[in-house]
UniProtKB/TrEMBL annotation:
Organism: Anisodus tanguticus
Gene3D superfamilies attached to this UniProt entry: B-lactam Antibiotic, Isopenicillin N Synthase, Chain
Xref: InterPro entries: DIOX_N, IPNS-like_FE2OG_OXY, IPNS-like_sf, Oxoglu/Fe-dep_dioxygenase_dom, Plant_2OG-oxidoreductases
Family label: Belongs to the iron/ascorbate-dependent oxidoreductase family.
Keywords carried by this UniProt record: Coiled coil, Iron, Metal-binding, Oxidoreductase, Vitamin C
PROSITE patterns, alphabetized: FE2OG_OXY
GO biological process, one term: response to molecule of fungal origin
PANTHER family per the UniProt record, alphabetical: OXOGLUTARATE/IRON-DEPENDENT DIOXYGENASE
Chain ranges of the Fe2OG dioxygenase domain: 106-251
Keyword Transferase: no
Coiled coil ranges: 63-90
Protein name, entry field: Fe2OG dioxygenase domain-containing protein
Amino acid sequence: MKHEIQEFFNLPLEEKKKFERLAGDTDGYGQLFVVSDEQKLDWADLVYLKTSRPYLRMPVFSKLSFREKIEEYSEEIKELTMKILELLGKAVGIKEEEVKSLFEEGMQSMRMNYYPPCPQPELVMGICPHSDACGLTILLQVNETEGLQIRKDGVWTPIVPLPNAFIVNVGDVLEIPLTKQKNSLHPILDSALLSSHSSVYDHSEELEALKHVDLLAYLQKFSQMEFTEASHRSVVSSEKERISVATFHSPRLDGEFGPADSLISADNPPKFTKIGVAEYYRGFFNRELVGKSYVDVMRITSGDDLKN
Ligand SMILES: O=C(O)CCC(=O)C(=O)O
Ligand SMILES: [Fe+2]
């Protein structure tokens, strides 16, 4: 799939335009989160596709010559995502059924990002700082060009691409179910690098190898970390192009999400309201992708300081 994605972005513009995102739509080739002519655009081209559930796929999906590869990758990533979500839930005390009922039939989408080199990289941003609006993101770096940065202790920290590794990012939708009472540690994973230790760069082997990593111990360790920001961004190189594929796993569209019922008690009152998943995404796609997340809309602000 890496090869096909590379080939796609190398096509002449006229060819790529055949897959262009239509006005009012989210899927296809082009830019997202553009709300005004004045806005500074990201130094990137992207293809956004809803990949699962299959009924969510748009016509542009079936036009892509490498759709079967995407389908295969999508299924394997879903399996991996569910495994991580269940273990993550277990690590912080959310019942498995609760995780399954929200995410098993969830929406999966992919964002293939192409960052061309820029002669003055300091003047542009590949993707502006943001946190992902999903539950969990599995990020594949298609080539070895560096660019992703996460905000750690207030500092933008580069993530060096490792061969045979995915980057797992926690999205906004997990922040809400997992948020605990103020004086406990914030049980959210920071960007966690999971290395598969496989020497052959083939994603099925990567996934197979990942099954042997002790994820629960790993996640428990991370879930004890004090968490301040989930923001990440990508910068561009002056010489080399960069390609990444983010696969976002979100809750089921006819579901509702908010603080996990299994974590709410008199001592740990909800800090967020519940919201219908479809309504949440409508709000998300109709704004500019800047800074902290749409989650703030759901924050219950009455009472004392609710942020950790
Ligand atoms: O290109 C990257 O490494 C980051 C991509 C990303 O954050 C996204 O697609 O949401
Ligand atoms: Fe992202």
